[in-house]
Design brief:
This protein has a single domain, classed as Orthogonal Bundle (Flavocytochrome C3, Chain A, domain 2). It is built from eight helices and no strands. The longest helix has 14 residues. The N and C termini lie far apart (about 60 Å).
Length: about 150
């Protein structure tokens, strides 16, 4: 009896299109093209970075289908609005704005909101691990994360 209730509620949530993977507070991923209209200078600089082309390094090494590798070379891996796979969400490939600043849907809806965060060394170290990138220096690298030295 209990399983039927859970099943029924799940179907109802799906029919009503209630998001299950994120809260309204955190929002969903929208992709860098949504950031571009208001942040064109940063967007242009970002296009010159290795983050913008991060998925290409996996393709060169034949690791583009390994989830443990893909998650660090795309944006919003398996999150609402984020990267699912190359066929469904190719626009979310690469390490885009939201990888550091968080899901952008709420910011797009209300640009005055303070929902956009700034990543710090602990966020970067989720992918730039000691094993994967032992010489990673946050203080030096963050200067160039947008393609040009941050002021």
């Amino acid at each position: 009896m209990r399983l039927k209730n859970v099943y029924g509620i799940s179907i109802l949530l799906l029919v009503l299109n209630v998001p299950l993977m994120y809260s309204e507070k955190s929002g969903s991923y929208v992709g860098a093209t949504q950031c571009e209209p208001c942040h064109s200078d940063i967007s242009a600089g970002y296009q010159t970075t290795r983050h913008a082309k991060a998925i290409d390094s996996l393709k060169k090494s034949g690791q583009e289908n390994l989830p443990a590798c893909v998650k660090c070379h795309v944006t919003g891996f398996e999150q609402d609005g984020g990267f699912i796979d190359y066929d469904l969400t190719p626009e979310m490939a690469g390490v885009q704005c939201e990888a550091c600043h968080g899901p952008g849907s709420n910011h797009i809806a209300d640009p005055t909101s303070d929902m956009i965060k700034n990543g710090g060394p602990e966020l970067c170290r989720q992918c730039h691990t000691e094993k994967q990138d032992p010489k990673f220096n946050f203080e030096e690298k963050v200067k160039y994360v947008h393609g040009t030295p941050l002021q």
